[in-house]
């Protein structure tokens, strides 16, 4: 896992163009609006993803220490020097996002702040031999993961400032990525991926968290492995989709969201995207899906009232044998 950090590979194509004209180094950069919007959506995905993964860590089988840090390597762009100039960066690595309320954010790391070292290792000692070199950013995130797995904390070096020692916290072992693809929301067992154009970015935080929770549910319930073992028949995919719909309110509740948000999302998204010619044959109709979600909400509220948390490994009814 990459400590909830974006694999730069996913966004390399989308980041290949210069976001704005160069600015004087003394001035705060004024980003191209489209680039600024992408950064904003990246931050929002990481914020909500961190909250869900951290809030459910006590119940996940696969757990890892993480600090909520996502790095940006300017070598992943087509014109690295021009990108550094446009962003006001003197160094090649910077903070892409520090998820809200994560150890990185609480330590004071901010978006586009330069990062020079991790545990004393100088990141630029890995040469970037060509533009669009996403592999170096990938190596940096793997280094983060390896250090946290062994020591549980990392030291971040930043220019002209004292180094920061940041201790990881347990999270469900999933990372969250913004991709350059169109209209994508998917989980692959290790990652949850959304395109920047996905309609739910226009929704409230609770509703957007609900669709993130649905994708996270696929990972924490092991659906990818189950489908690999049992075959990707339509009925099997429908079962896993139904389970993910039903688990979403449980994940939301443990992250401090109203479990009703899952139903609100489906009622908003479904009529436009989940019916008629837009309906995927691997999914039930949106109204059926809403009914399944609605049936879980009283169970979630009962668990929260009784225990103060939603113990889904204990109280959630599985439809498939894991």
Structure description:
This protein is of the alpha+beta class and 322 residues long. The chain folds into two domains: 8-171, Pdz3 Domain; 198-315, no CATH class. 44% of the residues lie in helices and 14% in strands. The chain has helices at residues 8-11, 33-55, 80-87, 103-106, 134-151, 205-220, 223-230, 234-254, 260-273, 286-307, 312-315, and strands spanning 63-66, 69-73, 93-98, 117-118, 121-122, 153-157, 164-167, 169-172, 175-179, 185-187, 191-195. It has a four-stranded antiparallel β-sheet with strand order 5-4-6-7. α2 (33-55) packs across α6. The longest helix is centred in the first third of the chain and has 23 residues, at 33-55. It is globular and about 55 Å long. It starts with 7 loop residues before the first helix and ends in a 7-residue tail after the last helix. Mean pLDDT is 87; it is low at 1-26.
């Amino acid at each position: 896992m990459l400590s909830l950090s974006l694999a730069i590979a996913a966004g390399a194509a989308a980041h290949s163009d210069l976001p704005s004209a160069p600015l004087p180094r003394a001035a705060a950069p004024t980003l191209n609006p489209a680039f600024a919007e992408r950064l904003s959506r990246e931050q929002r995905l990481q914020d909500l993803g961190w909250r869900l993964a951290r809030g459910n860590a006590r119940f996940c089988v696969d757990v890892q220490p993480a600090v909520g840090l996502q790095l940006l390597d300017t070598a992943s762009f087509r014109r690295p020097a021009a990108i550094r100039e446009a962003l006001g960066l003197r160094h090649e690595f910077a903070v892409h996002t520090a998820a809200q309320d994560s150890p990185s954010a609480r330590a004071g790391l901010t978006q586009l702040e330069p990062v020079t070292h991790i545990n004393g290792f100088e990141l630029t000692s890995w040469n970037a031999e060509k533009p669009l070199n996403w592999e170096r950013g990938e190596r940096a995130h793997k280094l983060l993961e390896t250090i946290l797995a062994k020591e549980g904390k990392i030291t971040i070096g930043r220019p002209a400032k004292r180094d920061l020692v940041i201790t990881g916290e347990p999270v469900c072992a999933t990372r969250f990525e913004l991709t350059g693809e169109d209209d994508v929301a998917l989980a692959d067992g290790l990652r949850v991926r959304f395109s920047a154009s996905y309609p739910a970015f226009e929704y409230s935080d609770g509703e957007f968290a609900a669709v993130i929770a649905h994708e996270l549910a696929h990972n924490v319930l092991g659906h990818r492995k189950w489908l690999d073992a049992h075959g990707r028949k339509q009925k099997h995919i429908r079962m896993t989709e139904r389970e993910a719909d039903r688990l979403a309110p449980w994940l939301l509740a443990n992250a401090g969201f109203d479990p009703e948000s899952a139903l609100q999302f489906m009622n908003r998204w479904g009529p436009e995207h989940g019916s008629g010619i837009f309906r995927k044959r691997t999914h039930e109709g949106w109204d059926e899906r809403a009914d399944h979600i609605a049936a879980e909400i009283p169970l979630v509220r009962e668990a929260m009232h009784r225990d103060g948390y939603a113990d889904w490994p204990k109280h959630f009814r599985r439809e498939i044998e894991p």
